[in-house]
Recover the amino acids of this structure.
């Protein structure tokens, strides 16, 4: 295992460290003030700010802001990450061809760079979690609805991954969102975004929220928006607080 760190590197040092990380199959992290451009299914710009950039050996590229657990920009594995100097700045470019997308981070000031030659062959194992619900639904779609057929598991969209993209016995598309805890209004909103996205090309798309339970307010919100709730109570959790919802969900 090799770990190297550079403090306040200049653009040339950032580029050299990034190229070495790509060459050696290492994880690269950059703490920097940067701006980010995205081009692909849409286009976007993220102005100057202090962020954490992460490039992984499989081509994954993440841009994290100081708060929140999700990256504000990202590129999944399967692509490439390149480094170059441009206009006196170091630039990290992540891109892939299918679909054609690119995320470009221009580093205006680098505070630190770390190259980490990591080794990890362990497999993460879950028990009593959403993963088990997914496996159960894949093998027993009729438990959600008679005649339901799973087309794709974890289909990627611009809003994230749809848990299941399915069709009913009439051939109507069904977007299925699965939660291992009591369904909340946030989960309803998430499903609604997915349904609206697919409704742009098909007016008959159905939405289905699957969870161990849901409050009356969540069930009513689903009904009012022509979406459905399916209860899989056998996946309710015993851990205290795991299925509790916030007051705003009732």
């Amino acid at each position: 295992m090799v770990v190297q760190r550079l403090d306040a590197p200049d653009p040339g040092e950032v580029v050299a460290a990034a190229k070495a990380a790509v060459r050696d199959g290492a994880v690269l992290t950059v703490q920097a003030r940067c701006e980010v451009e995205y081009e692909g299914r849409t286009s976007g710009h993220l102005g100057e700010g202090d962020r954490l950039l992460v490039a992984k050996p499989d081509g994954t590229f993440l841009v994290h802001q100081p708060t929140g657990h999700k990256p504000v920009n990202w590129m999944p594995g399967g692509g490439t990450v390149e480094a170059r100097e441009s206009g006196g700045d170091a630039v990290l470019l992540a891109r892939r061809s299918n679909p054609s997308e690119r995320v470009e981070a221009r580093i205006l000031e680098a505070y630190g760079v770390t190259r980490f030659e990591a080794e990890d062959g362990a497999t993460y194992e879950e028990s009593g979690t959403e993963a088990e619900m997914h496996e159960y639904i894949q093998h027993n779609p009729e438990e959600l609805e008679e005649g339901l057929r799973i087309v794709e598991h974890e289909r990627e969209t611009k809003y994230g991954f749809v848990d299941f993209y399915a069709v009913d016995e009439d051939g109507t598309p069904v977007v299925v969102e699965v939660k291992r805890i009591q369904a909340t209004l946030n989960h309803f909103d998430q499903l609604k975004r997915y349904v609206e996205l697919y409704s742009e090309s098909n007016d008959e798309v159905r939405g289905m929220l699957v969870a161990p339970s849901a409050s009356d307010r969540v069930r009513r919100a689903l009904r009012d928006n022509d979406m459905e709730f399916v209860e899989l109570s056998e996946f309710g959790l015993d851990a205290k607080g795991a299925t509790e919802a916030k007051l705003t969900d009732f």
The longest helix spans residues 185-199.
